[in-house]
User: What shape does this take?
Amino acid sequence: MNEIMTRLRDLVGPAGWLDAPADLAPYEKEERGLFHGKARAVVRPADTREVAAVLKFCNEHRLPVVPQGGNTGLVGGGVPDTSGTQIILSLARLDKIRALDPVNDTMTVEAGVVLADIQNRAADADRLFPLSLAAEGSCRIGGNLSTNAGGINVLRYGMARDLVLGLEVVLADGRVLDTMTGLRKDNTGYDLKQIFLGAEGTLGIITAAVLKLFPAMREVETCFVALPDPKAGIELLGRAKAESGGNVQAFELTERRLIDFVLAHIPGTADPLAEKHPWYALIEFAAGDLGGALKAMVERLLERAMEDGLILDAAIASSEQQRKALWKLRESMTEAQKPEGASIKHDISVPVSSVPDFLARGAAAVEAFVPGARVCAFGHAGDGNIHFNVSRPLDWADDKFQALRHEMNARVHAIVAEYRGSISAEHGIGILKRDELPQHKDATALELMRTLKAAFDPNNILNPGKLLP
Ligand SMILES: Cc1cc2nc3c(=O)[nH]c(=O)nc-3n(C[C@H](O)[C@H](O)[C@H](O)COP(=O)(O)OP(=O)(O)OC[C@H]3O[C@@H](n4cnc5c(N)ncnc54)[C@H](O)[C@@H]3O)c2cc1C
Assistant: This one.
């Protein structure tokens, strides 16, 4: 090991240092295996002070640093490039919940705390931390905040950035920015913490956050409804929001094909309804103690929707076990696509009102481009966010289909652009969408992003090559 690496290791000690190839391997690739790099070493600091010392040193020696949390990101943002020169900075050892204030409704956590542990700690205190996604058992809050994660409860509570009151960030030169106030009102100038949320580790390293907590819900109703088409689904969403007084917390849309994939490939799943239908919505309502009135409201809503032809059939979960079975259908959709062969994915958003139009035009464009390609559209339609995935035609080889990825992305994203939608609704840009960004981002916005990057990280040591083309 050369002198620079020895000095870097000394900053974190043996417990915070990995450089044997076998130890580096799990950090060098993400779970889907799309991105695979080579790291010089992995540093695993124990606290903010060590993160600051590492960054100061790396900045002085121009060592590129790739921050990593739970490594569940889907755009390659947390893996190093193939040069073998980048240092992975794992936040996994910063795993303390520093405080919970039930009166202020806040929890103070370090960046490496696993999301599910935060949810559980909130529940133990009779509170809710609403950020929820299928990777919650392994993603870490620093990663969630750096990707501005979305998930299933955005409809009611917003994205990750809406759940943060304060942030502790180590800057590229090792200075620590401390906005950990837990204040709901603070009009003292620029809201600096927002700049780091969703920045994918390119502007600073998040080491801790003050998170907002919400009242725990007392009544939850989950239903799975069959729809004639997405237009009926979006009309139902409007009614559900109005009639429940804003108590809809998840509204997930899917076409039948995904249900078929899940039933075929995921053990322990069953169709909740007796017959097949073209589209479905999984809707969850939640409220405080209404004396059971939430259930009655949901039943009334569904009855009227059925009379008006908006829904064709419905199942309401009558136990926690049934609720989990409905959510398992939804959460298995990505997994269930794998055995169907290569898939070209789009994580897009359009205004909620444009979802039906987008779905029709997107499907027509895909089918015209690759006859026999199987559109698998599903996702957080209540937020206008559709995972518009396309599985290869049954008789095509994976490679032949994957070779069309860029062209397919371009065709789908061109339609998204007509609605002024986004080519990355919740997964971020990373490497996957970096080179496509300039076509879709306002030129002035991109210029300001570059100005910020140069101001915060003049030596370009923080996650170089990610996000910004
Ligand atoms: C099965 C599955 C389901 C998913 N569902 C959703 C979903 O519904 N919604 C959604 O939004 N995403 C989803 N994701 C994507 C992923 O879980 C999220 O992007 C998550 O927020 C990443 O957290 P992480 O800790 O794994 O971050 P990582 O993958 O480790 O890192 C993500 C990015 O953040 C940077 N980073 C990590 N930690 C820090 C830090 N402390 N400071 C600065 N930068 C940092 C990394 O460099 C990288 O650019 C899903 C992923 C999987 C595998």
